[in-house]
Amino acid sequence: MTTSQTAPPGLAPRPRRTWRYLAGLLVVVVLALVAGRLAWTWLNPLGEQTIDRSQPALLQSIKDLSRFEAATGSFQVVVDLEKDARFLPDAVKGTRTLFVGAGGVDAYVDLSGLTGDAVTVSEDRTAATIVLPRAQLDKPNLDNRRSYVFAQQRGLLDRVQDFLSGSPADQREVYLLAERKIAEAAAESDLRARADANTRRMLEGLLKSLGFTEVTVKFGDEP
Hints:
By secondary structure, this protein is α+β, with helices and mostly antiparallel strands. It is built from four helices and eight strands, in the order αβββββββαααβ. The strands form two sheets. Strands 1, 2, 5, 6 and 7 form a five-stranded antiparallel beta sheet that branches. A three-stranded mixed beta sheet has the order 3-4-8, with helices on one face. β3 and β4 form a beta hairpin. The longest helix is centred in the N-terminal third of the chain and has 28 residues.
C-alpha cells in the first residue's frame, strides 16, 4: 500500500518568482537612491561653483639674464604689529596682528659689467685669472603658501569700520614689514659669502674642464 504525502494547508512552498520579485525590487531601490543622489548633487541650490574668468597672461617684457644665481637662503619671521589710539582703550580702537612670513632671498653675482680686462690668460693658456664683483642680495620673495596671519585682534570701532567698508583691513603693511625684516636678516647672514664661494668653485671647475691647470678667481676688493 502506498501513501502520498501532501503539504498541510497554508504551508505550500513559495514559488521562485517571489525571490525574483524581491531581488528586482531591491535593484530598483538602489538605482533610485543613486539617481536621487546624483540629481540632488546637480540641482543642489546651496552648492558652490567656481568659474575662472581671468584673462590670459600678457608678456610685457623679456630680459636677458647676465648673472649667476649662486645661493638661496630661506627665512621665516613673526611680525607683531600693533596700532593703538592715543586716548581710547584697545577694546574700542586698536589692532594687533601676528603674521608669519616665510620666503627666500637669492644671492647672485652680476656678470653684466665685466670688461675685457676682467679675464687674464697666460701665454701658454694654462693659467687664468678672473676678477668678479662681490655677490649681491636680491629682494625677498615671500611664499604665499607658507605666509599667513596667525592671530588678529581688533577694537570695536575697527570691526564696525571693516563691516561698513565690506572688506577686511588691508594687510599689505605686515607683508612689507615681513619682507624688510627678512632682507635685514639676509644681510646679516653669511649668504653673500656663500655665494662668493660657490661662484669661485663653479668657475674653477669650468675653466679646469677647458684645459686650464691654474685658475684664480678674485673679487674686486681683494688684493
